[in-house]
Structures are given as C-alpha cells and as structure tokens.
C-alpha cells in the first residue's frame, strides 16, 4: 500500500498511519519529486508525478496496488489511475480534488501564484507565515500537536518542489474522466476542510462508479494529522474489503 502526501507535506505525514496498518499490508510512504529526500528535474505537471508513481510500481514489481493520496497526492493518484487503471486495486482519496483551480483566468492564476511565492523569504518559509498557513487549513479546534507539526512541515518546504508542483497543478482537470475509473474508491473529507470542501468530495463520489464518502465531523484539511485514529480505521476497513485485489510481491530489499 502506497501513501502520497499533499503539496505542503512529505512522506512523514503519513508514517504514523502507515505504521498502524502494517498487520494488514506492506506500507510505503513516498516523497514526491523534489520533496523530502526525493530529487529530480522540475515537474511540468501532474503527468510527471504520475509517471514517477508508475515507474516506482515497475521498479518494485508491483502489478496492482492500493494507494492513499492526500490533496495533491490524490490528484496524482487520479492522474495515474486515468493513465493506467489496471495498476490500482483501490484508491483512498483524502481531501482530494478532480480539478485544481481550473476555473481561473490566466491573470487570476498569476495573482494566486504570486501570493504563494510570497510565502518564501529566499528559500524558506518563515515561522510566522508557516503558522498562519497551518491555521488556515486546520479546523479551529485542531489539536495543538497537529498545528505545531504542520507549521514545522511548511517551514521545511523546498521552494523549488512546492512552486513547481503548484504551477503543474493549476488548471489540471480530470473531472470528465472519473466515470472510467471503476476500481473501488474511498473518499474522506473533513467537514471544516476549506481547501477541498465536502461538496467537492461529494461531486467526485457521484461521478465515480464505485465510491464511498466519509465525512469527518469537525476536521479540517489534514485528517492524517487531526484524526489519525479515524484514518487508520477507515483505511483498515477499506483494506479488509479490497486488499485481495492487490499484488502480494515481496518487497524485501526493493524499497528505494
């Protein structure tokens, strides 16, 4: 089982969840290109991330997997599943969207990007801005530990990775391709998610042939930090129902 982080994250955000599921499946958490410990050419769009993911499956000799994607990680999974649906036995999409700011004009997109560039003081995000961004995506009463951890994650963002991923996301739109994705899909969204409101998750669930939506009451955009136990239960239930469709390849010595 693979776990993919969001645009402001890294593999460690999913590690506690993945560790809680090891009795059910072999779990791997990735760093997207130019995030965390991953390095490579600048990405031009979601297709580059999807190609990376499919190349990783090939490297590990994984014919079919169940994958979990948060926010941008969910966009990557949707893109990869549209390109190679046979590689996925099931998807779990957390706070994910099937289109990202596709409604914006070019001028509006440039304003949006300018605001995100302004987060950085040189190559780093200041503690004050990191805390402000964390507050904007978490529920008002999110645990202080989640607020502290997310603020630290934003401070550790790599400018090149974040901005290229942002550029590559804006305008991406796979809404019209959702009906062709026939694998089982679980969607999870916080009722206080300001980035991916429940209405967007409902629209995805309605467009997919085999989807189930779970709303987490009082949770914002980061359920893996705000409600880890609920995430473990939800994913464990999904695995219990669909793990038989995934590959059983021995990954000993293969994980990069």
From TrEMBL:
Key word Hydrolase present: yes
SUPFAM superfamilies registered for this protein in UniProt: alpha/beta-Hydrolases (SSF53474)
CC terms in the record's Gene Ontology section: membrane
GO molecular function: hydrolase activity
Keywords: Hydrolase
Domain (AB hydrolase-1): residue spans on this chain: 1-228
UniProt keyword Hydrolase, yes or no: yes
Family matches, as Pfam families: Abhydrolase_1
Name assigned to this protein: Pimeloyl-ACP methyl ester carboxylesterase
């Amino acid at each position: 089982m693979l776990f993919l982080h969001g645009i402001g994250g890294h593999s460690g955000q999913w590690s506690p969840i993945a560790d809680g599921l090891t009795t059910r499946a072999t779990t791997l958490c990735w760093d997207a290109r130019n995030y965390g410990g991953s390095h490579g050419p600048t990405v031009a769009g979601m297709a580059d991330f999807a190609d990376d993911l499919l190349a990783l499956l090939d490297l590990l000799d994984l014919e079919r997997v169940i994958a979990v994607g948060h926010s941008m990680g969910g966009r990557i999974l949707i893109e990869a599943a549209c390109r190679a649906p046979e590689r996925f036995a099931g998807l779990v999409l957390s706070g994910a969207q099937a289109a990202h700011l596709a409604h914006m004009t070019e001028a509006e997109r440039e304003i949006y990007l300018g605001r995100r560039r302004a987060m950085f003081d040189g190559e780093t995000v200041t503690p004050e801005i990191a805390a402000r961004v964390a507050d904007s995506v978490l529920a008002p009463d999110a645990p202080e530990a989640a607020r502290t951890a997310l603020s630290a994650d934003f401070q550790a963002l790599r400018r090149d990775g974040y901005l290229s991923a942002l550029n590559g996301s804006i305008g991406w739109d796979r809404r019209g391709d959702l009906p062709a994705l026939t694998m089982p899909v679980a969607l999870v969204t916080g009722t206080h998610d300001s980035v991916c409101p429940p209405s967007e998750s409902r629209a995805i669930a309605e467009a997919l042939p085999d989807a189930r939506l779970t709303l987490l009451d009082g949770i914002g955009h980061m359920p893996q930090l705000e409600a880890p136990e609920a995430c473990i239960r939800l994913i464990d239930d999904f695995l219990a129902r669909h793990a038989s469709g995934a590959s059983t390849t021995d990954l000993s010595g293969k994980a990069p």
